[in-house]
Design brief:
single chain; two-stranded antiparallel ribbon; 5% helix
Length: 276
């Protein structure tokens, strides 16, 4: 096994029946937040905010906990606002905006000072409109965008990464009811466009196998499409819910120098449940 640490070449442990490896992780987290809800000009407004801290200590000598082998300390916040309003009796519009941030630092017991630090920031906005089309049909349309900024700095090997991605998305669903039974069909699409800089992928062989492809995947330009069909059928003592979903993800650019994985990814799923 390999201990992946920062952007340095990971070092390995030989694991066998005569040379087992034990690792202990102690994690602690605290959070504090609140919610405010009110109505103004016919619009329902909900605002939430939360701040938290996380600590993680890793020990490779589980018999002695005098000093951790690695330590990670992080703090973050999450703020969300939702606006919802009815237009007549058949149209409901919802807008949700969010802002999330996280920053942390890591230290190692064999080094002095901060060995690695990282920060994430995410901003998202989403709009959702639902309409009743007569007594049996309904329509839902949604769209929005997210922007994610990720920064990492490894002070041991003097390497850093800075990735910013923008992801607009859109989706829709049409439903038809027959009494308590209903069928809905929908589709969604999203496109991710990255920018920024990555460390040189020509590190050691373990780095190229474990770390470089993951970084290249995060910085890849990609498009995703999904479609689904859902049906609900009433029973005497409950409701059967069946759904089939198909998804595909296709990279729009492949940078071989970054060791970026190639090929499209496709999958489908079927779910069946009973609700009392």
């Amino acid at each position: 096994i390999h201990a992946v640490q920062g952007y340095d070449e990971p070092f390995g442990f030989l694991v066998g029946s005569s040379s087992p490896v034990f690792v202990r992780n102690d994690r602690r987290a605290t959070a504090l937040g609140g919610t405010v809800e009110f109505s103004a000009v016919g619009t329902r407004v909900v605002v939430t905010h939360e701040q938290g801290n996380r600590a993680e200590d890793q020990y490779r000598n589980i018999a002695s906990r005098v000093r951790p082998t690695d330590q990670w300390r992080a703090s973050g916040s999450n703020t969300r606002m939702q606006l919802q309003r009815m237009f007549g009796s058949r149209v409901r519009a919802t807008v949700v905006g969010s802002n999330e941030s996280l920053h942390g630092t890591a230290v190692r017991n064999d080094l002095t000072g901060i060995a690695f630090d990282g920060s994430d920031a995410k901003f998202a906005v989403e709009g959702d409109v639902r309409m009743e089309l007569g007594t049996a049909w309904s329509l839902a349309v949604l769209g929005g965008a997210t922007r994610l900024s990720t920064q990492r700095t490894d002070y041991v090997v003097s390497l850093s990464s800075n990735i910013e991605t923008s992801t607009p998305f859109v989706g829709g669903e049409v439903a038809r009811r027959w009494g308590r039974a209903a069928v809905a069909i929908g589709a969604s699409a999203a496109s991710t466009t990255p920018s920024g800089a990555l460390p040189n992928a020509t590190q050691g062989p373990t780095y190229q196998r474990l770390i470089a492809p993951a970084l290249a995947y995060d910085a890849a330009e990609v498009r995703a499409v999904a479609g689904w069909l859902t049906a609900t059928v009433p029973l005497r003592r409950g409701t059967v819910i069946a759904s089939i979903r198909s998804e595909s993800t296709t990279p729009m650019s492949v940078v071989s120098a970054r060791l970026q994985p190639r090929g499209a990814r496709k999958g489908w799923s079927i779910s069946l449940g009973v609700r009392p």
